[in-house]
Specification:
The protein has about 400 residues and is of the alpha/beta class. It has 12 helices and 20 strands. The chain folds into 2 domains: about 5-180, Flavin prenyltransferase-like (Rossmann fold, 3-Layer(aba) Sandwich); about 190-290 and about 300-390, Rossmann fold, CATH 3.40.50. The strands form 5 sheets. It has an 8-stranded mixed β-sheet, sandwiched between helices.
């Protein structure tokens, strides 16, 4: 029998491989978003089965969820004992006030509340995405029950407060939280610091001395680490690139802020540091407050060398697992590039990601070097990020 390709999804990651998720839908208008949630969970490798309350079926029928999950939808209990949770985790999205209040009071009067009762009895993860009018969300009885649900081991995924409503989180944010929490990766629970983007030197209040790098690779590394279950902090140059809202990010406007942010964060005991920021080698000798007048007032900019951040980090935190980056311009051979990277490895760094200008024209080619020599030769930012996280011990 031929496969119906219309039901399939493109797998973008194996983060939820061999994981099964019960997607529970209750009676809120946000129920119309649930086929997207199911498909996104499947894109990350999960098997998804949908469970619907009678109220949910007033907003969306079982048919789109059957299509989205490629499984029969449970909308009523039968002799097949659908109320016994066989999945690895439960996601209630949207979760109404009525359903959350019922669960915390021990009610089991429909498909969803009974399934959750079984899941809690087995100690399985239960994720709750409350959605309702803001006045209902702020109801003191509901808030008390919301806190009680946490005591029972449920994880609350906070809503977006907008237009007087507690709305379902953005699709990527909702799914990323579940992926992060359910990951079985070896970096799960590790604290990882990722730096990226430029670290400009300030000339005056409106001018900077900077480079062309934006920090997109750092964002990919941070995403990969987060999807693998790590606790991630991203330090990023303020260049305007979009960062997913599920990532914890702090921005730096110049080299001095970057330097301070790095050591302020590392004081909080990190396991890993991925230093992909394009750190300035030189900054203006003097900062001028205000704006230097135009029309030739700025004739030259005396420069001074900066402190070598990764060297200071290595000296201060000898146990930190460090991934550093080395970029070389035109004219350097592959052999010389690898030699430079190996020299840095010998200086006490764990991984060096090296690349050169002529290999960056049609993609983001890199050479990942460890103590054993060249380990990977990724051809894209996503591949680089995946290889880096795979190497972390």
């Amino acid at each position: 029998m031929r496969e119906n390709k219309d039901l399939k999804v493109d797998i973008v990651g194996d983060y939820l491989k061999d994981r099964s998720i019960a997607l529970c839908i209750t009676g809120g208008i946000a129920a119309i978003e649930t086929p997207k949630i199911a498909r996104q969970l499947r894109r990350y490798g999960a098997a998804v089965k949908a469970y619907m309350t009678p109220s949910a079926q007033k907003f969306i029928t079982p048919l789109p969820l059957e299509w989205a999950t490629e499984q029969d939808v449970v909308s009523a209990l039968s002799g097949r004992a659908e109320h016994i949770c066989m999945e690895d985790a439960v996601v209630i999205a949207p979760a109404t006030l009525n359903t959350i209040n019922k669960i915390t009071q021990g009610f089991a009067d429909n498909v969803v509340t009974t399934l959750v009762a079984s899941a809690l009895g087995q100690g399985k993860p239960v994720y709750v995405a409350p959605t309702m009018h803001e006045s209902l969300y702020e109801n003191p009885v509901f808030q008390e029950n919301l806190e009680k649900s946490k005591e029972y081991g449920m994880t609350i995924i906070p809503p977006r407060i907008s237009e007087g409503k507690a709305k379902i989180p953005k699709l990527d944010t909702l799914v990323a939280k579940i992926v992060n929490d359910l990951s079985r990766s070896k970096v799960r629970g590790k604290k990882i610091l990722v730096t990226g983007g430029p670290t400009p030197g300030r000339i005056d209040d409106v001018r900077i001395l900077s480079n062309i790098f934006k920090g997109r690779l750092a964002v990919e590394v941070a995403k990969e680490a987060y999807f693998r279950g790590a606790e991630v902090k991203l330090l990023l140059g303020s260049t305007g690139i979009v960062v997913p809202e599920y990532l914890d990010v702090s921005y730096h406007m110049d080299y001095d802020e970057y330097y301070d942010n790095v050591f302020s964060e590392l004081a909080q005991e990190y396991d890993v540091g991925v230093f992909s920021a394009a750190v300035a080698d030189y900054v203006p000798e003097k900062f001028v407050e205000g704006k230097i007048p135009s029309q030739g007032a700025l004739q030259n900019i005396p420069l001074v060398g900066t402190k070598k951040v990764i060297k200071e980090v290595r000296e201060k935190y000898p146990e930190l697992y460090m991934v550093t980056f080395k970029y070389e311009g035109q004219g350097i051979t592959h052999e010389d590039l690898i030699g430079i990277a190996k020299k840095r490895i010998n200086e006490g760094y764990d991984i060096v990601v090296a690349n050169r200008a002529e290999e960056m024209a049609d993609g983001h080619v890199a050479h990942i070097i460890g103590k054993q020599g060249e380990l990977y030769n990724p051809q894209s930012k996503k591949e680089i990020a995946s290889n880096i996280i795979a190497l972390i011990k």
